[in-house]
Structures are given as structure tokens and as C-alpha cells.
Design brief:
Length: 204
């Protein structure tokens, strides 16, 4: 059975939704950031980067990184395109979220990752905010006239969904992003999304 290590509202929520949608039995294990459990000796054996998500596979071996976990789950549960070009496009979207959008958020909320000197943190945070805001607008444009991030619903959608509450938390006027907001509402219609939001105690 698969086990997901997650933290409420974190990027691990994407894999959590996919596991819930799969209908397959799975376990989920909360990693308590308030107690710095992600840096504990036990958790570092699961993911040496001290981050969630981490997925324990059927053979007991851990798998880290959204860029690996989401395609794996997508292929296992039929939320992944079979056509090579469409697959490349979904990978491109996942890569965009993992390596562009997510780091801009880390600049806002985890400036200590980027500079030891706290005096420069406000500058790093400001740059993160500007960059994140630009990505939110870019995502909104990309969603114009479409239901999902790619042509069909895929694991890229729960991943994209994570960034909507993050935009609210950042204080961006998310309602102004009409296409992203309509996408968020479509996600909220899905029972698995409702279930995981309740389980992780996330309100939108
Ligand atoms: N590249 C990783 C990034 C994972 C990541 O940064 N996770 C955050 C939560 S969204 C985390 O675990 N943060 C804990 C920390 O910074 O101490 C992935 O996409 O899986």
C-alpha cells in the first residue's frame, strides 16, 4: 500500500488529492512542521531534503519530488496522457510549477533558504512576491477558454490547485483572476478535493 507523507496545505496536497481520487486504499502520515519534524533523523531517512511530499512505494522504498511522484501516480491511476506530445506538455506544466512558481513562493515565505543575512530577506521576499504575482497572472491567461491546465484532467490539476490558496495567503486579489477562480471552483466540485481540504483543514 502507498503511504504519503504530507503537511496540511503544502504542495503535498496535490498527491493527496490524486491518491484520494484513485479509490485505492492508501495511508497518509502528517509531518508536523511546527515541531520541525521534517528535519528529524527519522524523516530525513525518508527524504534527505527534509521536505514533503514523500511517497512510500509498495516495496517500502521512498520516492520524493512532485516531478516524480505526480507522474508516477498519474500513470498508476489513469490521470496521465498516453500521447507522447500531450505527455510532454503535462510534464512541462509540472516542471513550470515545481521549478518556477514554487520557488517564487519559497522566496516569499522561506527567504532564509536564499540568504543567511536577515537584512536582505525583505528584498528577497519582495522579489518573490513580484515573481509569484506574475506567474499567477500567467496561469490565469493560460486557463482562458479551458477547463483544465492541460487538454484533459490530469495530475497537473491538483498540483495547480495548490497555488490558489497560496495566492490567497499571499494576499493577492485572487477573485480578479477569473479563469483561475473558475478552475478553482471546478476543482472544488470534485469530492476528492472536498475530502482532502476537510482532512487537511484548509478553507478557501
Ligand atoms: N522540490 C520539492 C519541493 C518540496 C517542498 O519545498 N515542500 C515544502 C512544502 S510545500 C516543504 O516540505 N517545506 C519544508 C521546509 O521548508 O522546511 C517538490 O516539488 O517535491
Amino acid at each position: 500500500m502507498l503511504t504519503l507523507y504530507f503537511s496540511p496545505g503544502a504542495c503535498s496536497m496535490a498527491a493527496h488529492v490524486v491518491l484520494q481520487e484513485s479509490g485505492e486504499e492508501y495511508k497518509s502520515q502528517r509531518v508536523n512542521f511546527a515541531d520541525a519534524e521534517q528535519h528529524s533523523e527519522a524523516y530525513l531517512k525518508i527524504n534527505p531534503q527534509g521536505r514533503v511530499p514523500a511517497l512510500i512505494l509498495d516495496d517500502g522504498e521512498p520516492l520524493a519530488e512532485n516531478t516524480a511522484i505526480l507522474p508516477y501516480l498519474g500513470k498508476r491511476f489513469g490521470l496521465w496522457p498516453t500521447d507522447p506530445i500531450t505527455e510532454a506538455r503535462v510534464l512541462s506544466l509540472i516542471g513550470f510549477l515545481a521549478t518556477n512558481v514554487h520557488p517564487s513562493v519559497a522566496h516569499m515565505w522561506r527567504p532564509g533558504r536564499y540568504a543567511a543575512d536577515p537584512n536582505v530577506h525583505p528584498q528577497i521576499q519582495e522579489r518573490g512576491r513580484e515573481t509569484f504575482d506574475g506567474y499567477l497572472q500567467q496561469i490565469d491567461r493560460k486557463l482562458a477558454g479551458r477547463n483544465w491546465f492541460s487538454d484533459q484532467y490530469s495530475v497537473a490539476d491538483p498540483y495547480l490547485f495548490v497555488f490558489y490558496p497560496w495566492g490567497l495567503r499571499r494576499g493577492y486579489p485572487m477573485q480578479e483572476l477569473k479563469n483561475f477562480t473558475a478552475f478553482k471552483d471546478r476543482m472544488l466540485d470534485r469530492p476528492a478535493v472536498q475530502h482532502i481540504l476537510a482532512k487537511e483543514k484548509i478553507t478557501l
